[in-house]
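Handout, page 2. Input:
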Amino acid sequence: MSTRGFVSALAVAFGVGLIPVAAGAAPSDWITKPSGEQVSAVYPKLATALQIAGRVMLRCGVMPTGLLQSCTVAAEAPKGLGFGDAALTLSGYFRMSPNTGSPTGDGENGVRIPLNFKLPPPDAERPSLSAPTSPEALAEARRLTGALRLDQGFEQSMTEGFMRQRTDAGVDQSVWLEGFADLLVAARSVGPDRLEMMAGAIAARVSATDLKAAADYFLSPAGQAYLDHAVDLRTHNRTADGEAGHLAAVEGRRIFCANRDCASGTSPQADGTSWLEVPAKAQIEAVRPVLAKMFYIPGYADIACGQAVSGVPRECRVAEEHPAGLGFGPAALELAGYFREDPKGPRPKGMRVIFPAPALSSPPPRSAPPTTRAYGLARQLVQIEGLVDALVQRDERLSHEFLDKPLSGVAPDTQLEAQRAVRAGTLAMAAAAVDSRARADVEVLGEQAVQARLAFVQSPANQAILNYDRGAYDDRLLAGRYFNQLIASIAREASIARERFCAQRDCSSDLAGPKGPARPGP
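Output:
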């Protein structure tokens, strides 16, 4: 088992109880409001890691269509952690019943909206199951966790993950780094207890014989070489998987567009100056057809409408769409309510909604696979480890999620063609990923280390540990004291970091809002 296995399992546990959720219910005059996923996407990352809640009071104008405009942060708590900027981002997802705004106190038509950012309560403890651990197994499990350098792995993964992220909007870089430093101190303080917990958990599931074989491998020169270069291989594979994913998109688009015109031939929107309001880019992107997203296809649709009511078009229909049959027409109809006529201008003849798509460049040429023995062993290793298979299964799950249900404006035969194209792209991605990973293993590790690792991953010891690793966070296998210990250690780590971080600043979410009544929050 690799460091990646243990660390990825721990990363799953870190997500338990830490996913931000939206708070409260929408009042009757809210037509739309941010979803839990949208709140989670903008919840300040540093505040999430430190488990800090926040509260913001927004002050917004309300358009006749019910959309919010000119929003400002009237108050936020705590300050400086990005809650205000997150709330402003969420304001674009709100829509009220038209003409429900009320004076805000300075003569403007608008509302004050309190937004709560809070984290869900921790998971409840699970009932303990008897899991007797032999002293021999526990001793070998400690050897294994030591050989895997898990203490370094936890810290390295944490540092890489934190540094890959951009600083939250509204958070000064010095505050961001200070928060990370506090999280790192906290992680080190609970590290020994967490390692002991991991050793105990695996010793309760894997025999002393298998644990000894695994520890012996990772303490050998070949095993240490693998661990020495684990970060380099992980970085290479991350890049290679991205390139393989790009190849999948190119191949899928090539096959899907082979017998149809996938060029939009778009032109500037007719009568654009006649519209007082038009859909924002984010609103257009939110309804872009599924096939257009999958195959990077741009398109447009012309919409014809009857007499407008209060400037908003009514009784709309699709006059033309291109490319046809991919869902651009129904998508454009969803946006009709975001157009508004200018009462002082000429009545528009119609509306054109343009759906742009990012350019899809050709992948770089690939050389022929090597014919050496080392490369052959490395291909076996990559295939047995199953990481590429996991990528394929992930893409196939996503494909089924979007293509197994009827798509508006798309014929069933077209959806079947799309499924075949996605499958072909996925197979091309898998072949490229296997080739790239095998080349990297040979180049970085060398033939002897590859051969030794191949022998280990095929051994009963590795299979036993993999079976533990794959099911370790399943309710049936890690029920009881080890799961509860892990959750407790995560909570303790966040508590230590939060106490250090908040010693020099006010982390309270108490909010003294503006004077006067506020509209109920979402």
